[in-house]
TrEMBL record:
Transmembrane segments: 12-28, 60-81, 93-112, 118-136, 143-164, 236-264, 276-298, 304-324, 345-367, 387-411, 423-443, 449-468, 480-499, 519-539, 567-588, 608-627, 639-656
InterPro entries linked to this entry: ABC_BtuC-like, ABC_transptr_permease_BtuC
Record's protein name: Iron ABC transporter
Pfam families: FecCD (PF01032)
Subcellular localization, as worded in the UniProt entry: Cell membrane
Keywords assigned: Cell membrane, Membrane, Transmembrane, Transmembrane helix, Transport
Any single GO BP term: siderophore-iron import into cell
Keyword Hydrolase tagged: no
Highest rank taxon of the organism: Bacteria
One CC-aspect GO term: plasma membrane
Length: 667
């Protein structure tokens, strides 16, 4: 241990452990003392004793084991991939395991009794294979890899949420468990988990020296006669297995695998063995302390509050505190793109996209399923029976797509970060939190009140992002981490509200899913008007968007008032995000996809890129709403979730074929 401690300051670990131990003593210290003093009662039924022996202590053990596994898994991923953003959550591994368990619980429930670990491992492996397969051509660029992981995580998470919503009577308990519940009623989970982790830890210790070679770089590793690909494959396989086993046991618990290795590096750990061991210990201490805090604050409701959903409440502020102190080995140029796209005549592309949008809207309004006729076109103008239901939904979906596309383009232009979007940066989550507060605090909440709450929430997140990002020059790695932290923090609050079982949580979940069902024609037209009105200052200020992308110094030299322009543009982005979130929820990912679609068509100038992205976003959302309306008729599927399911494969294809995500020469 002295060798491990030589380059690591363990003070923080002992502090966290001490706090966790103190809190655990407050929870069950007196009962433990009575048991140690008097022994276990055999002749009478002692409720407090049973709770400690078969609930409190197993829960503490599972928390420590899960924290060990997640911290260790995150450290392996970050070392093997040389990526400070890698973790089971950001790589989509946990989401893949959770989706596999949801599918098994719905279609093959018997398998959960005998093979939960195998099912979770298969799901996690599929997610990881998808991420690595798509990024193999990118030489595993850190930003590209994490962005792909986030997109895959969103895709799998959206599919799992859709299955839960469609089968809520059967999967409600799985939803709460999937949020990361450490509640225990026996020692069964701990007894299953510790042998699995022991085997994987043992394999990792055997591979410490090969892992150390990866730090030197692939060239140096190959020159020593060792295959870096094989070492990386073995390391990532262990990390995936660790995360999958934890997910199968207690659900998805995020942030531990991301934060623990960061803390260890900031405390001075440099050797591979040191980082692995201390990451596991820090992860265990963090999860133990978090769970103890939750039990004390929740009181009698402790069994119903999922620890995984609340972990980010402590982990997010900690990550936000650590981000400015982190040093990234990879530096990505944010003011320029490393690839020159083929410049296409913007007007021709715009006309084609406009025609496509008109065709999509006309198709969605006139073609659908009917209770009497089945699949049919209706060109008769039958307003009372058909159009009064379809037209408002189509207008609302199109308006939301426009808003998200414009917000995404603004954010990517302002930050010089091609990965920026309302979804990635947590702005949609902020708007959703504002809506949640309104639902829980306002009696008879209206769409107008929810819109105000969404605007307030998105503005707070944007202001926080701008404050943190300005210090680092909007460096992509830090911006993504800040967005992940803020998004996870807000999602944890929303998840905690939803897991309470309150009737208002059902309303909140429906809004999160993003269904346009029931929207009025007035509300839909108002949303479209807002989107078009907000596009006017963007079109008139398109020069500022083009110039700001060149950097602050160049913008000032060209006569652009940087502060005022950024303030106005960020305000417009907040309004756009708030309006779209009220209509289709926070999960669409249209804000990330459509600017890339416009750029892939050769559009670099802001004014053409803006309009084409808006039309593409509106069309994509209309297609998603139409699919949700007809695929399981007469039941509804939410447009917000379906837009993620429809658009994410398109974005992944663009990422795998375009060079937009390649590293700069400094990477």
């Amino acid at each position: 241990m002295s060798e491990i401690q030589r380059n690591y300051n363990p003070a923080l670990f002992f502090t966290i452990t001490g706090v966790a131990l103190f809190l655990s003593w407050l929870l069950m210290g007196q009962d433990l003392q009575d048991i140690l003093s008097n022994g276990i009662s055999c002749d009478e039924y002692n409720v407090r004793e049973m709770l400690v022996l078969y609930s409190g202590l197993p829960r503490l053990s599972v928390a420590i084991l899960s924290g060990l596994a997640l911290g260790f898994s995150g450290a392996i991923l970050q070392l093997a991939l040389r990526n400070p953003l890698a973790s089971p959550t950001t790589m989509g591994v946990s989401a893949g395991a959770y989706l596999a368990l949801v599918i098994a619980g719905l279609f093959f429930p018997a398998t959960l009794v005998y093979g939960r670990e195998v099912i979770a491992l298969v799901g996690a492996g599929v997610a990881a294979a998808l991420v690595f397969g798509l990024m193999a051509r990118r030489d595993f660029s850190p930003i590209s890899l994490v962005l792909t992981g986030l997109i895959v995580s969103l895709y799998f998470g959206a599919l799992a949420s859709l299955l839960v919503l469609l089968n809520d009577r059967y999967l409600a308990s799985l939803f709460i468990w999937g949020a990361g519940s450490l509640s225990q009623q026996s020692w069964d989970v701990a007894n299953i988990l510790w042998p699995q982790l022991l085997v994987l830890f043992g394999l990792s210790m055997v591979m410490v020296r090969p892992f150390s070679l990866l730090v030197l770089g692939d060239g140096s590793t190959s020159s020593l006669g060792v295959s870096p690909g094989m070492i990386r494959f073995f390391a990532v396989s262990i990390a995936i297995a660790l995360a999958a086993f934890v997910t199968s046991a207690v659900g998805v618990i995020g942030f531990i695998g991301l934060v623990a290795p960061m803390i260890v590096r900031l405390c001075g750990a440099r050797r591979v063995l040191s980082q692995l061991i201390w990451s596991a210990l820090i992860g265990a201490a963090l999860l133990w302390m978090t769970d103890a805090v939750i039990q004390i604050l929740a009181g009698s409701l402790r069994e119903f509050v999922p620890t995984g959903a609340v972990t980010a409440l402590l982990g997010s502020p900690l990550l936000l505190f650590l981000i400015p102190r982190m040093k990234f080995e990879t530096v990505v140029q944010t003011n320029e793109v490393s690839v020159v796209w083929r410049q296409t005549a913007g007007l021709k592309v715009l006309i084609v996209m406009l025609l496509i949008s008109i065709g999509v809207v006309a198709f969605a309004v006139t073609f659908g399923r009917d209770a009497d006729l089945g699949w049919a076109f209706d060109l008769s103008g039958n307003w009372d029976d058909v159009y009064q239901w379809r037209v408002p939904r189509v207008i609302a979906a199109f308006s939301a797509g426009i808003m998200l596309a414009l917000a995404g383009m603004i954010l990517q232009r302002l930050t010089g970060n091609i990965m920026a979007s309302p979804e990635v940066l947590g702005i949609n989550a902020g708007a959703m939190m504002g809506i949640g507060v309104c639902i829980y605090l306002v009696v008879g909440v209206t769409p107008e009140i929810m819109a105000v709450g969404a605007l307030f929430g998105s503005s707070i997140v944007l202001a926080t992002l701008f404050a943190f990002g300005k210090r680092s020059g909007f460096q992509p790695e830090r911006m993504i981490l800040i967005g992940v932290a803020l998004g996870a923090l807000i999602d944890a609050l929303i998840g905690a509200l939803a897991a309470t079982g309150d009737l208002r949580s059902v309303h909140l979940l429906r809004i999160m899913a993003g269904s346009t069902y029931g929207v009025s024609l007035e509300a839909a037209c108002s949303a479209l008007l807002i989107g078009c009105v907000l596009m006017v200052p963007l079109l008139s200020g398109s020069r500022a968007l083009d110039v700001l992308n060149l950097g602050e110094k160049v913008s000032l030299a060209l006569g652009v008032n940087v502060r005022r322009s950024r303030f106005v543009l960020f305000a417009v982005a907040s309004c756009l995000t708030a309006g779209a979130t009220v209509l289709v929820g926070p999960l669409s990912f249209v804000g990330l996809m459509t600017p890339h679609i416009a750029r892939s068509l050769g559009l670099l100038q802001a004014r053409f890129q803006m309009v084409v992205a808006a039309l593409a976003g509106g069309s994509l959302m209309v297609v998603a709403d139409w699919i949700g309306r007809v695929i399981d008729y007469p039941y509804e599927m939410p447009a917000g979730l379906l837009s993620a399911l429809v658009g994410t494969p398109l974005l992944l294809i663009l990422m795998s074929r375009q060079n937009a995500f390649t590293r700069s020469s400094n990477a």
